[in-house]
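Sanity check

After download, print the first record. It should look like this:
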Amino acid sequence: MKTVVVGLSGGVDSSVAAYLLKQQGYNVIGLFMKNWHDDSVTISDECPWLDDSNDAMLVAEKLEIPFQTVDLSQEYKERIVDYMFREYEQGRTPNPDVLCNREIKFDVFMNIALSLRADFVATGHYCRKAVVNDGTEKPIYRLLSGIDNAKDQSYFLCQLSQEQLAKTLFPIGELTKPEVREIAQELNLVTANKKDSQGLCFIGKVRLPDFLQQKLKPKAGTIIAISDQFEPYSKTPPLVDSKEETLAFAAQKIKYSKSDGSVIGTHQGAHFFTKGQRKGLAVGGTKEPLFVIDTDVEDNIIYVGEGKDHPGLLRSTLFVPNDDLHWVRPDLSLTHGEELSVLARIRYRQPLEDAVLYQTEKGLYVTFSNPQTAITEGQFVAWYLNDELVGSGVIS
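Expected C-alpha cells:
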C-alpha cells in the first residue's frame, strides 16, 4: 500500500483531498504546517493557525488517519517573510503564495514527508497532474489546470520542478468547488462550510498591508499625479530595428521624475504601495479613480494616474532574466533566438491571454497580444500550452 502525506490546512479542500485518497486505497497521514508565531506582529487577539490546526485534527479523527503538527516557522520566516520585506523595501511586489509553494510546501514540507517514508505528498490545490509517455525511461510530468476554471490554482504552482511533481498528487483537481463542499457536507466534516482563507499563505487572517506596516517603518512622502497626455522622455525608439532591441524597448519601464506631474497628496511610505493599486491613496476630487502607476522607494514618491486606462498602467511586453526563468517542462525550454506562441497570465485569476515568448542570450521576453494592466516587478508571469502550465518567471 502506497503512503501519502496530506498537507491538512484546516480547510475544506485539503480535508476532501485526504478523504478521496483514503477511498482510493492509500495509507494517508495528515500533517498540519505551523508557519508563523512571531509575537512581534500582533494583528488581533485571534489565533487563526490554532483554530485551523484544531479543525485539521478533527478532520483527521473523522477520517481515522494519523495526524501531527510540524513547526516550520523558522524556515517560513527565512524563506518567505524576510524575502518579502526585502522585495517591498526595493519597490518590488513578491507573490508569497507562489513562494510558499516553492519553498515550504514542496520543499521543506515534502522533505519531511519523504523522511516519513511517504511515497507521495498531496495538497488541496485545484489543478491536475498527467504523465507524458514518450518511450523514454524517465517520465515527463505535466501540470494541468483544474477542471473548475473559477478555482484553478495552477498559477500558484508555477515554480514546481519535475522532481517535485513526480512526488505530488492533486486529488481534487477533477472536481469543482461546489462538488468538494458537497462531499464534505455528506461526511459531516467540520470544514464543510468554512470560508476560504484570504490571508497570507498559512499565516491566516493577517492582511498583507497590516503585516507590512508592522515591519516596515512609515515614512512621509508625496503623491504625484501624471497626466494621461504625458510623453515619457525615456521612450526613444532604438536606431537599429533588430528583434531583440525592439523587444527591449517595448519592455522598458517608464521613468518618472518630480517635474513630470503635480503634487496632489501625501503617503506614509512608497514601499507600502504597488502598481495598479487603487485603495489606500486617500486622495479625492478627481473625475476618475486614481491608480498607482509607479513607485520610487529611493525618493519615496508615488506616481498616480487617473482612470484604469491610463497609459502609465499599460504595457504589452515584459522581461524575465535567465536567473529568474523556470521551466516546469525543461524539454520545452527555448534556446537563443527561438520563440513560442503561448497563453499567459501575470496574476492569479487573470484570464489567459495570447502571448509570444522570445528567448535571448540574457533572458526571455513575453509579448502579449493585448496590453496588460500593471505589469509589476517581482511578480510571476506563467505561460501555458492549452491547459498545461509549462513555465514561469519573475518579472524584472
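If your output differs, re-run the checksum step. Summary of this record's structure: The mean pLDDT is 91.
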